[in-house]
Amino acid sequence: LELTPDHVDALVAYGVAHFRSDKLSEAIEHLTKAVQLDPSHGHAVRNLGGALAAAGDFEAAEQHLRQALLLMPDDQAAVFNLGQCLSRMDDKAKQSEGDALLLSAIAVDPNSEIAEMARRARNAMGRAASARKHAVCSAWTRECIASVPWRSSRI
Fold this sequence. Notes:
- By secondary structure, this protein is mainly α.
- The chain is built from seven helices and no strands.
């Protein structure tokens, strides 16, 4: 990068290296520059979306990951990343779309590492949904118990 600071592939490589080292702000910085230099570079767009999702900016991540899918419609990692991003959002319709995309990522190549990650993501989603459902039921039960007029009576 010192010799050619605008080399898109080098910026992507640096961005991915920073992402893998949990240096999200540096990853986003390099990947953003790569996308600014070449908005049609599918891997740059996909990896920027992944880094933004990891940083918790799901709306921006969704935008980039949808663009990555337009640029690389058969890219299993783009399908997986968008599916995982959407499944982590608070919108039930997006969660449902995310689950469908995770299933699509599995279908692309069921024996791949990405397919296994998609399976784990779907399992985690199921556990999280179950925990949310349990929390809602527990809160409702507590509310019901609190509203019952308990009386102490002697027989």
